[in-house]
Amino acid sequence: MNVSPHTPIEPGILYFGTPVVLISTTNEDGSANLAPMSSAFWLGWRAMLGLGARSKTTANLLRTRECVLNLPSADLAPAVDRLAFTTGSDPVPPGKTRRGYFHVADKFGRAGFTAVPSGTVAPPRVAECPVALEAVLEATHPFATDDPAQSGSVLGLEVRVQRVLVHDAIRRTDAPDHIDPDAWRPLIMSFQKLYGLGPQVHESTLARIPERLYRGPDIDRARRIGA
Which of these, 65, 70, 68, lies nearest to 139 by C-alpha position? Predict the structure, then answer.
């Protein structure tokens, strides 16, 4: 095995590759906002979302405490890209104005997506996305509080998933509550560019652990909603 030496560099961002998420939230007038982001990760039925503290999505989520995390597949990249440089904020914040952003009220219409009602939260789901996670805000975690220059500009928003909805095409036929990773092709953002997920490269030893052993109490809590 050839081992290359490491070289120190100073990239402006460290976005090594994460799924794109379209977050739908509710505006003050009851209309829907839809925003793409990729700073998200999941632990059990909880997700941590890294968002600008002054974004429209953040304001909506802090006010209503509800959202839907819509996960687009790779073939939806052109539609997702139509949301680039758009914001639901009016007027557009100065920082976004400098980057070329402009206000769009109807994000669903601009992208060509279909809004469908959610079951446990007010914001609609994106019908075209193979995965939709209805969620509620549980906690807010400020970032970079040690640095006055950055403090207050970025928030980590912890949300709890209340319902998972998927297209049948990505479900395993032998285990309907499981996603088939060979059928699910998420849209990936890596250093500001959009990619698809390639085929499996190696059998994972961890895959021998049954998914049911990861089941947490949030799933049972979600089942009681609307019961």
Answer: 65
State whether the Cα torsion 194-199-205-206 is positive or negative: positive
User: Domain range for residue 110?
Assistant: 18-222
Looking at residue 213, its pLDDT comes to: 86
> What is the rounded average pLDDT for all residues in the chain?
93
User: Is 110 in contact with 83 (CB distance < 8 Å)?
Assistant: yes
pLDDT digits (tens, 9 = 90+) for 171-194: 999 999 999 999 999 999 999 999
**pLDDT computed for residue 179 by the predictor:** 96
Is 12 within the bounds of a domain?
no
User: Distance between CA atoms of 64 and 11, rounded to whole angstroms?
Assistant: 36
Q: Considering the domain boundaries, does residue 170 fall inside one? A: yes
Buried b (16+ CB within 10 A) or exposed e, 54-75: bbbbbbbbeebebbbbbbbbbe
* Residues in a beta bridge with 32: 26
Amino acid at 211: E
Q: Kindly provide the b/e burial profile for residues 6-27, where b requires at least 16 CB atoms within 10 angstroms of the residue's own CB.
A: eeeeeeeeeeeebbbbbbbbbb
